[in-house]
What does this fold into?
Amino acid sequence: MDSCLAARHNRCMTTPPAGGRPRPAVRPAPTSLPDLFISFTLLALQGFGGVLAIVQRELVERKGWLTQEEFIEDWAVAQIMPGPNVVNLALIIGGRYFGVAGALAALAGMLLVPLVLILLLALVHARFAGNPQVAGALRGMAAVSAGLIGAAGLKLSVALKKSPIPLPACVAIAVAAFVLVALLKVRLGLVLLSLGGLGVALAWRRLTP
It folds into this structure.
C-alpha cells in the first residue's frame, strides 16, 4: 500500500524499516483478563471523589490503551448510557478486547475492592461523622475533586480541534450545556437529548458527502 492506514487499535510507523514498507505498530492493550481486572481495580482505588481525571490519565497518558480522541468518543457513549459513567466505560473497554468475559472482568475490577472499602469507610464515617475535623476534611477533598475534574476537562478540550464540528460550535454547545445544567438546573436527560442531538446532527451534516 502506498498510504499508511491507521485502524482504531493500530498505529502506523512514520519511518519505514530499511528496505521495507511501513508496518503497523501494535498499540498497547490489556494482555489478559487478570490484567484488565487489576488495571481497573487500581484505577478505581485512585478515584477519590471523581474518577474522570484518573481514568483519562491512566488509560490515555500512562497505558496508551486509548488516544485522546478515542477516549472522548467512548466517554460520550458512556455518558449517555444508564448507570455510572466510569462503569459503562469499563464495560466498553473490557468488551472491546475480550468480549463478555472482558466486560465482566473490568466491571469486577471497578467494583469489587472499592465496594469492600466503601463498606468499611461507611462504618468509620457513621462513628465520626459529627466530628468537625472530619467534616472539614471531606469538604477539602471535594474541592480537590472539583479541581481534578476541571483539569481533565481542559485536557480533553484539546481533542475538539479534530472534531468534524467547527470549534466555535463546539465551544457554544459546551457553554450552553454548562449554563443549562449548572445555572438553570435543567434535567441532564433533556440537555443530552437537545444539545447532544444538535451535536450529532452537525457532525452528520459535515461528514455526509
Observations:
- Confidence is low (pLDDT under 50) at residues 1-24.
